[in-house]
Amino acid sequence: MPDTASALGAPAERREGPQKVTGTARYAAEHTPEGCAYAWPVPATVARGAVSAVDATAALAVPGVVEVLTHLNAPRLGKPDDATLSVLQDARVPHRGWYVALVVADTLEAAREGAAAVQVTYAEEPYDVILKADHPEAYVPEDSDGTSGEHVRGDAEDAFAAAAARVDALYRVPPLHNHPMEPHAATAHWQDGRLTVHDSSQGATTVRDVLAGLFALPKEQITVVSEHVGGGFGSKGTPRPHVVLASMAARATGRPVKLALPRRQLAAVVGHRSPTLHRVRLGAEADGTLTSVIHEVTAHTSRVKEFVETATAATRIMYPSPHARTTQRVLPLDVPSPSWMRAPGEAPGMYALESAMDELAATLGIDPVELRLRNDTQTEPDSSLPFSSRHLAECLREGARRFGWSERDPRPRSRAEGPVLVGSGVAAATYPVIVSPSRASAHAYPDGSFVIRVNATDIGQGARTVLAQVAADVLGVPLDSVRADIGNSDLPAAPLAGGSCGTGSWGWAVHEACTRLAARLAGQRGQQLPPEGVGATADTAGEADADSGYSRHSFGAHFAEVGVDTVSGEVRVRRLLGVYAAGHILNSRTARSQFIGAMTMGLGMALTEGSTMDAAFGDFTEADLAAYHVPAHADVPAIEAHWIDEDDPHLNPMGSKGIGEIGIVGTAAAIGNAVHHATGLRLRELPLTPDRVL
Ligand code: MOS
């Protein structure tokens, strides 16, 4: 094959694709060291209280069961920053599903049978699991990074009262679950005081560091391998209880231990998107110019730790308005701990804001694309910093052109095909540019091959491929000659695959290491390289995390066409089209795949996904894929993702912004707005299931 694929931006194919489709790629639970035992956890069956007694007699009598760990006999751990990792350390039960025991056995079947036989007695306590915006314990959390707390400009209430046009609406996004295809799993192995763990994680460096603290070991004595990861969407962004339990059980039994969490247990222990209750008030002049923006959000957190679904963050940077107030509130309940799920904060926040913008457009009789164009800006409203680049208007115009927006009759219920009402909607999207310091190394060998090393993680996005492209581009060599070693904590330390920051962060370090290597090679021109090759390293600390002086965000525009069946109430998405401005796109094939994947997740958020906190049990009702409906192929139309190439010198040496999350951000609002256009109905609670539509 000609080497056209080495250039940045080229559609190079995923390097590990053949391994994945032939089943030879090995995931965390597919490593089985000699003598490996299997673990199965026991979740609490009460919503709040304490374990008062554990009877493991029957469990230990199951043939093959070797150990039952509880808070009474489990190894003591150091105190983690993340209290969800303090497993089996005390008798507290902070929520239903919290782990109270772990059974280890010679076989998976015996472990499972043993877990069912463990008798746990609880001292139950009254509990509270229902999110209410006016709950007396809700509070405004501290704002450490601008995404939380309360931000005020001018006098938003007065300006709202005086506005020529007003929208005042409540929106609700339910709890959502990440449900990656590969469940959370770890295989842990202690040998001579060294711990080796294969973990399904979005960042093995963090897992190693956290395990070092928990088990009081030097980092050098731990290796965490996350070679292939079957999705995470944030739920594997931090270490989860499974990796701690597997490591504990391996230490306690002296055998390697494998633990793959059953899918039905995931909802309680790997994080979820907190439900959010929104009140959005928009005030505008008759020409659509916003004069007041008020966005108030209440999210829940657990009693174990504070996690804030920062759903007002995007509202602070989207539209200029002289008067604005954004208020984030959080309510601790006896629920599982929420955590990151794709575009945490932006996805639910922009659902509410962009739905309200559509309501404002309808109130004013202004086209919703035009309303957004009239409220565009090159200065971030909240900080007054200039955007390093903001091509929202270009995304809206390009999307409208490609979608055929100008042919749209703006009147609701203006298009019917028999009992099916057809409509279209638009919404804007944004996601911050996050960059973290990373290390990397690059080596050249006498046979003309190159190896780059960085503890990046491939969670499906194609990290090996794009990092090899970055290296090949800097070195000016064929892509095939570059190997990328990733997914192991013994490699140069790197941040997680999360916050859409992976490629920009790792790529920066790879770029720097390769630039240095190229300089060394230039100095040795004509000489044979030594057998061990020559290398260069890079560490972008102090550089990647320096203040750029700019507000840096990706922007995008989403367009949706839906058909709403007035007999069944079913909403089908017929077309989805996204246009993004996210710096330079480094691999058009894998980038398109990420955009489309996130838009599909947004489609699920709009129409099928949602979880119910059951007040009677204090638990999520939808615990598996039979009840929690992610979109199936038949739900997903041909999705189009396009982009506008941005030249932004304030990002990183590749000029890239993150692309993993923005695709979900505006999708649900665009679909909801299309449902309004089709039916004339304003549905402000997701998902838009038939019971709500009829
Ligand atoms: Mo993403 S929710 O930061 O993995």
TrEMBL record:
Residues 532-543 have a biased composition (Low complexity). SMART domains: Ald_Xan_dh_C. Residues 1-21, 525-549 are annotated as: Disordered. Keywords: Molybdenum, Oxidoreductase. SUPFAM superfamilies: CO dehydrogenase molybdoprotein N-domain-like, Molybdenum cofactor-binding domain. Gene3D superfamilies: Aldehyde oxidase/xanthine dehydrogenase, a/b hammerhead (3.90.1170.50), Aldehyde oxidase/xanthine dehydrogenase, molybdopterin binding domain (3.30.365.10). Coiled coil: none annotated. InterPro entries: Ald_Oxase/Xan_DH_a/b, Ald_Oxase/Xan_DH_a/b_sf, Ald_Oxase/xanthine_DH-like, AldOxase/xan_DH_MoCoBD1, AldOxase/xan_DH_MoCoBD2, AldOxase/xan_DH_Mopterin-bd_sf. Residues 22-126 form the Aldehyde oxidase/xanthine dehydrogenase a/b hammerhead domain. PANTHER family: ALDEHYDE OXIDASE 1-RELATED (PTHR11908:SF132), XANTHINE DEHYDROGENASE (PTHR11908). This is Xanthine dehydrogenase family protein molybdopterin-binding subunit.
